[in-house]
Specification:
Chain lengths: 945, 317
């Protein structure tokens, strides 16, 4: 141990540190300042950026001893006496903060950057932040915030002596009425928690510090498929500071997100099924001791034949070998087959005037959120087992803990803290959560777990690697007449959401085009690799790519414009698809027209110089699944509201804000209904002790379902208050209105403040409490599989992408992306734009640079440097358009905007490559080699060997 | 330093000497289990992954002498501790060696460039898909040659390690005829930069463990034009999959250096007269490229041809 001293945020610290500790750990664990985040521990993401002696450093790779005597500034030291720095203000105002996990590092980088370059161009800003990864925003609003903050910081620097008191952003105080009469709905509104995130005060799962907590580390399998012959934990147990060593048979109960697919145990029992699977867990006094103890555990394995590809898993399992799961089907490693057929595809294709069939291949993907999984489990004073965990689904985690640990549900509490991005990757109950909870209960102490970035990749649950054959037929008019697809997805070692994914790969092709003859066969196999699950766009992204590329190819063959052919085929509003999806609001025409016009499609498509091109694609997606995962009589979501003497409106909801802004969404809806400013609304969410159930943040259900429930609860509250006031003032209830923080009568004679109204309403009975809920209407057909993809409402979108292909290297750069997304009604345009831009950024990643690579079952790139998400220098100019088709059933007309925008981005880029260089992309990510080969084949140039 | 005698060389240590002489003295005490730390951006990540397990870290970042730039004997003398980001602040470098600035600018991200040093970059450890992984990973793959195992995972061979040389500044410097001044146990020597590399993926540098690079020397008053290119998937962060630096001198001399495609920088010296195709063929012959990178071997070899012919074109050769 060595003694060091430094000044941190103007405060002196004397510390004892280990010789090789890094600064990030010391700041967080020893100084207790958790605003500085750890995203990768390799200096590849920028989340840990702080300033040492005015220089920005990646604190996760900075030796702390080097900082002896230094002056350190972290995010917690940026605001002065509660007043935000102008840069922080702009981040909040411009929507540059979604999940907020990258924000502290981003702010620290930018503060230094603007000192060096006070007048940067947009390109210089992009470069300045190119070492800070963001997965939520697509960087656009971050760049805008910086561009607007720069001149402010200059003028602030010019003023001498005075401290500018930065005006607190109170959007509600600038309420204007809009044409549609809304006070807050439709107005760009910064997240209600943005200030907490930008100051580093927001606590994420790994930021919680508990007295006397134990730390848990895992021993993971080094074989893809092997029988566990023996586990010797004796040496590990002897290590001082080790409190318990856990192995599989202590937790034999199986779990999984889908009731029909519960095939996983918390630790491997009997055999391991992928490299990285947890085999043992150690709880110890410190992370270091736990990690050392893990290295002392000796496991003897007997290798089994691994199944590492779709091909291998579709072969019969020989007698001498063993299928991955006993419940595998057909004597192969098949998990699930799904099929739906409407009409006769074979005949339809034979009769079609034009047909096109392409084989597609897709690499698997990872969500690559900036915050690694983490959790802490402990028993509270009432004996409740409490788990604070980075999850999108506290309700399902709650159920899972009860099942696996055999603890009654009313003795379990799951809390989702601030969350650094999910995108589906925190949407399963996890082994590490169950293990932490089990150990906490057993040992009577808090147990902390945090996954390293590599472990995040090994946990995976990302997009399934896919092989797909799809065929589209059309008649001479360009009308699509028939669609057939054969899809195989690689599920990895466990089920996760896979059954749903299997269906979504086929059923979500029923729109946005009218096709009367559709069929698909889909098959999910198990392989001995980390499990795949749900990732933004869930199951529909790959087939959407295939379909949009096929349309492009057909249009090309027929000499028809790709936009025109799509216009000829769109489904209208208020219709049923072939599989009886009920389409209500449908803005796809407007979306396509918008991006077509903005991109100057008519003048440019097919007319740009070689190497430059435009591509178009459309898409659609569900606003939540009409049928829940667990079938029971319970509503899909419930919201409670309480108002007490102080006039504060407290909204209780199980909804999980994962950075997409659902807390803000609820506040907006409730404030709008009650005619209040946003700052009167307090949201308490995602705490299974305190908040009524919401099923979770997945399948884009939250705005539609939770929004509706919140609206219902608010309207019930409004009625309660109006009734009380009406009675007290002897007026008719329907003569009263609530707006601008008042309750008034339409004839103007009554004029009460909100507080006065609350006093009247709470007289004699105290705090008011109301409830709202949502249940999907009964929808869909009666055939098997009719439920998959059913939704009370669907979003629609279109993208035109412009690319530049370097014909020497084959590399592709996206120059512009025009996107339009029909979200029904943008309750908060700032948030909607952010979700769209983030979706397009993620789609671009899938198109150009992201892939989970494997070597004999090992993930080859389990880190955030080798798994390549686009940096700020890689993004195009995003041109964002919100289309509002005013959904009849959405809250104020709103429907989803969190996933659907991603779908068209990927094929639009691929189609643009075709326009640019005539190379048809049929596998993702786009490889420069493929492009070069394609160009050369046309030019007949020899390729060097 | 009285405390030298009290050092327990078996315990983990972090030492911060003030001079080069002191640093080398400390290094000699710890024999094999030490590493020098300058910026730390390469070392720290290798430690995190368990590839570097040195007991003692000798932090040389405070040594003043190595942080300056001066001119002596018609050479620009750049201190090895000058940060990659700082190079562009010196007009002597900007005006005389623009490809060095370009190369330094292509390294990592702005944050890495503020921490990383020029000396550290030319000493950047060789990389390979199968080596730059965690302990768990290397155990699962049964350890490659560079991590002490019996087989090169990339090629299946048992004798030669093909980890890639990935420094971007080194090819630029080599093509500019750079030298390095090295201090080791009371001895100072000067080498051409390319001479310090072995071509052995496991031990990529000829320097003794205790040696410290003090200065990078660049000849001034040279009339030349140069082109620098780097191949990588993204426009920031990524290590190189191919770096080329081509310098064309007024006297007709041509110096080409390639990185990212062999265990050491591949250097070709020639003159204007030589046939370009022959030069490219020579480069391809000398590059020992295998499939241990995000891009395939074939593609990178194709890009060697592309980059070099494009460079010749841009230099109007």
């Amino acid at each position: 141990m060595k003694q060091i001293q430094f000044t941190l945020n103007d405060k002196n610290y004397d510390l004892l540190v280990e010789p090789h500790e890094n600064l990030a750990k010391v700041l967080r664990d020893k100084c207790g300042l958790t605003g500085t985040k750890i995203g990768c521990e390799q200096g590849a993401c920028g989340a840990c950026t702080v300033q040492v002696n005015d220089t920005p450093v990646l604190s996760c790779i900075t030796p702390v001893i080097r900082c002896n005597g230094a002056n350190i500034l972290t995010i917690e030291g940026v605001a002065t006496n509660g007043a935000l720095h102008p840069l922080q203000e702009k981040f909040v105002e411009k929507g540059a903060i979604q999940c907020g996990f990258c924000t502290p590092g981003m702010v620290m980088t930018v503060l230094a950057f603007l000192r060096e370059n006070p007048n940067p161009t947009i390109d210089e800003i992009k470069e300045g932040i190119s070492g800070n990864l963001c997965r939520c925003t697509g960087y656009k609003k971050i760049i805008e915030a910086i561009a607007e903050a720069a001149p402010l910081m200059q003028s602030k620097a010019k003023k001498t002596g005075e401290e500018d008191a930065i005006k607190k952003e109170t959007p509600a105080s600038e309420v204007q009425s809009f044409a549609d009469g809304f006070q807050i709905v439709g107005k760009p509104t910064p997240y209600i928690d943005a200030r907490k995130k930008v100051t580093g005060q927001a606590q994420y799962a790994d930021d919680y510090q508990f007295k006397d907590a134990l730390h848990c580390k895992f021993l993971r399998s080094v074989y893809p498929h092997a029988r566990i012959m023996s586990i010797d934990t004796s040496e590990a147990e002897k290590l001082p500071g080790v409190r318990y060593v856990l192995i599989g048979d202590e937790l034999p109960e199986k779990f999984g997100i889908l009731p029909i697919s519960q095939d996983q145990t918390a630790l491997a029992i009997d055999k391991v099924k992928y490299i990285g699977e947890i085999v043992a867990a150690v709880a110890a006094d410190s992370e270091t001791i736990a990690a050392d103890a893990v290295n002392l555990i000796k496991v003897k394995y007997e290798e089994l034949k691994p199944y590492l590809s779709i091909q291998e898993s579709l072969e019969p399992v020989s007698e001498n070998d063993e299928a991955i799961h006993p419940h595998c089907r057909e004597g192969k490693n098949i998990h699930k087959r799904a099929s739906l057929r409407f009409g006769d595809q074979k005949a339809g294709l034979e009769e079609a005037d034009h047909r096109c069939r392409i084989h597609f291949e897709f690499e698997g993907l990872n969500h690559a959120f900036t915050e690694p999984h983490a959790c802490t489990a402990f028993s509270d004073t009432n004996g409740n087992l409490t788990l604070i965990t980075a999850t999108q689904i506290p309700h399902y985690v709650h159920r899972t803990l009860s099942k696996v640990l055999d603890i009654p549900m009313d003795k379990i509490r799951v809390i989702k803290p601030f969350l650094g991005g999910g995108f589906g990757g925190k949407g399963d109950p996890f082994a590490h959560e169950i293990i932490a909870a089990h150990l906490a209960k057993k040992l009577g102490k808090p147990v902390k777990v945090r996954l390293s970035r590599e472990e995040v990749f090994l946990t995976n649950h990302g997009r399934h690697p896919t092989e797909m054959d799809m065929e589209l037929g059309a008649n001479d008019d360009g009308k699509f007449t028939v669609l057939d697809s054969d899809i195989k997805i690689d599920g990895g070692a466990y089920g996760s959401f896979g059954v749903v994914t299997t269906y979504y790969n086929g059923v979500l092709l029923q729109a946005p085009y009218k096709i009367d003859n559709i069929g698909f066969d889909a098959c999910r196999v198990y392989t001995n690799k980390p499990p795949n699950g749900a990732m933004r766009g869930h199951g529909a992204v790959n087939p959407r790519f295939a379909m949009e590329v096929l349309i492009d190819e057909l249009a090309h063959q027929m000499g028809m414009d790709p936009c025109e052919i799509r216009f000829r085929n769109f489904l209208p509003s208020n219709t049923l698809t072939l599989g009886q999806f009920r389409i209500t609001s449908n803005g796809v025409r407007e979306a396509l027209q918008t991006v077509k016009d903005q991109s100057n499609w008519k003048e440019q498509y097919g007319k740009l110089p070689f190497g430059q091109g435009l591509g178009v694609a459309c898409g659609f997606y569900i606003s939540g699944s009409a049928l829940p995962i667990i079938w029971n009589e319970y509503p899909q979501t419930v919201v409670h509201i309480k108002v007490d003497f102080d006039g504060r409106v407290v909204v209780y909801s199980g909804a999980s804000d994962i950075g997409q802004g659902s807390d803000t969404m609820m506040a907006i809806i409730v404030a709008e209904v009650l005619g209040l400013d946003l700052d009167k609304i307090h949201i308490h969410s995602a705490d299974t002790l305190m908040t009524p159930v919401d099923l979770g943040s997945y399948s884009s259900r939250v705005t539609f379902m939770v929004g509706n429930a919140a609206k219902m609860a608010a309207e019930n509250l409004k009625q309660e208050i109006i009734k009380s006031v009406a009675k007290s003032r002897r007026l008719k209830p329907n003569s009263l209105e609530m707006k601008s923080q008042q309750i008034i009568s339409k004839d103007g004679k009554l004029d009460l403040s909100w507080k006065e109204a609350v006093d009247i309403a709470t007289a004699h009975r105290g705090a008011l409490a109301t409830s709202g809920y949502y249940v999907s209407p009964k929808l869909g057909g009666k055939f098997k599989g009719a439920g998959a993809g059913l939704s009370p409402s669907y979003s629609f979108g279109a993208v035109v992408a412009e690319v530049k292909v370097n014909s020497d290297t084959g590399q592709v750069a996206v120059q512009n992306l025009w996107g339009a997304h029909d979200c029904g009604k943008a309750l908060n345009p700032l948030a909607v734009e952010g979700q769209l831009e983030g979706s397009w950024h993620m789609g671009m990643g899938q198109a150009l640079s992201e892939a989970m690579k494997y070597h004999k079952g090992l993930v080859v790139n389990p880190n955030i440097l080798d798994y390549k998400i686009p940096t700020a220098l890689d993004i195009p100019d995003f041109h964002t358009n919100i289309i509002e088709s005013c959904d009849p059933e959405g809250p104020f007309g709103a429907k989803e905007c969190g996933e659907g925008a991603l779908h068209p981005a990927v094929p639009a880029i691929a189609n643009a490559v075709f326009d640019a260089v005539g190379v048809r992309i049929t596998s993702l990510p786009i490889s420069p080699e493929t492009i070069l080969k394609g160009i050369r084949t046309k030019e007949k140039i020899e390729v060097v060997q | 330093m009285n405390s030298l005698k009290m050092l327990d060389t078996k315990q983990p240590a972090y030492l911060s000497p003030d001079t080069v002489e002191e640093a080398v003295k400390l290094a000699s005490l710890f024999k094999d289990s030490f590493s020098y730390v300058a910026g730390g951006t390469d070392l720290w990540v290798n430690r995190y992954q368990g590839n570097n397990q040195s007991n003692c870290l000798i932090d040389i970042s405070q040594i003043q002498e190595l942080q300056t730039i001066s001119v002596a004997d018609q050479k620009l003398k750049i201190g090895a501790l000058v940060k990659l980001d700082q190079l562009r602040n010196y007009p002597e470098i900007r005006n005389n060696f623009p490809t060095l600035i370009e190369a330094a600018h292509s390294v990592g991200s702005p944050l890495i460039r503020k921490m990383g040093t020029l000396g550290g970059n030319i000493l950047c450890e060789n990389r390979c898909t199968f080596y730059n992984q965690s302990d768990l990973w290397r155990e699962a793959i049964n350890y490659c040659l560079k991590s002490g195992g019996d087989i090169c995972i990339a090629t299946g061979g048992t004798k030669v390690c093909y980890s890639e040389f990935v420094s971007d500044t080194a090819p630029a410097l080599i093509s500019l005829d750079a030298q390095v001044e090295i201090f080791d146990k009371n001895n100072t020597e000067i080498f051409k930069l390319e001479e310090i590399y072995t071509g052995d993926g496991i031990h990529p540098r000829k320097l003794s463990k205790t040696a410290i690079i003090k200065f990078i020397l660049l000849p001034l008053k040279q009339k030349y034009r140069a082109v620098f290119k780097k191949l990588r998937p993204r426009k920031s962060m990524d290590f190189t999959s191919l770096t080329t630096a081509v310098s064309f001198y007024k006297d007709g001399g041509l110096k080409i250096a390639l990185g990212g495609v062999s265990p050491k920088p591949v250097v070709i010296e020639s003159n204007i007269g030589e046939n370009q195709d022959a030069l490219i063929k020579e480069a391809l012959k000398l590059c020992k490229t295998v499939d241990n990178d995000v891009y395939s071997r074939l593609y990178r070899r194709e890009m060697i041809r592309q980059f070099l012919s494009k460079s010749f074109e841009e230099l109007s050769i």
